User: What shape does this take?
Amino acid sequence: MMTTPTVVGPFVKSTASGQQDACVEVAPLSNGGRAVRDSKDQHGPRLFFSPTQWAAFTNSVKSDSHGTA
Assistant: This one.
C-alpha cells in the first residue's frame, strides 16, 4: 500500500508571480519531494512529486534555452 507523504512546510508562491491570481504554490514533503496546489483553491487537489520527479522538472526548467519557463 502506498502512503501519501506529509506536507512538512508552508506552501509558497514564487516572488516572480507578483500579485497575479493564476499561480501555483509549492511545499516540501516528508519524503523530500514537493506538493503543488492552485493558489486560488488552497483546499483543492494537490499534486505530489517524488524527489526524483521534482529534480527532473526543476532541471528541465533551469536548462530551458528559450527562457520561456
Q: What stands out?
A: The CA atoms of residues 28 and 34 lie 5 Å apart.
